[in-house]
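This entry is set out below.
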Amino acid sequence: IDQLENTVVKDFSKVIIKLMKRQMAEVLHSLSTRKALTKFNPDDVNIDLDKWIREYEAAGGAFIETALGIGADSLAGDIGGSFTVTDPSARRYVRKRTYVYAKMVNGSLYKKINTILATGIEGNYSIERMSELIQTFFLEQQVMRAFRIARTESVAGGNFGRNGVMKKQGIKYHMWLTTRDQLVRDHHAGL
C-alpha cells in the first residue's frame, strides 16, 4: 500500500481536487447568474451530472489501471506468475470501476448540493448566502474527500491486480487483511 500511497493516491488526489474546484466554480457561476431562487429545480443550478461522470471517468481510468498494475506486480514478485493491465478481465475491471466510482462520487455530490440549495430556498436565503454555503462545503470537503476517493479506488485496483495474479497461479483461497494504520475505518479495523 505504501507504493500506492506514494504514487497513485497522491497524484490521483490532486486530479480529483482540480475537478472539484471546477465543479464548485460551475455551481457558483450558475448561482451568480440568478437574482433569486424561489422554487427548487436542481438542474437549473447544480452540476451537469452526466458531464461530470464522464470527466471523472476520463481522469480516473489511468490511475485505477496503474494501481492495478502495481498490485499485480507486487504480488507477482512474491509468488511468481503475472497479471497485466492488458488482460481482458483487467480491461473490463478498469472500464467498469471508473464508471462506478465516477457515478458514485458525482451522485453523492449532486445530492449534497441539492440539499444545500433546498435548505437555502426553504430558509429564503440570498444567492450570496447559498453561494457561501456551497463554497464552504467544497472547501471543507475537497482535500479529505479527494484523498479518500483516491485511496479507495487505488487500493481496490491494486487488490484486483493482486487477485488476478492469485487466480493465474491457481490460488483458490486467500484472506485480506487491513493495513491496520490510522486511515482504516473503525468498522474495518478488526479484519
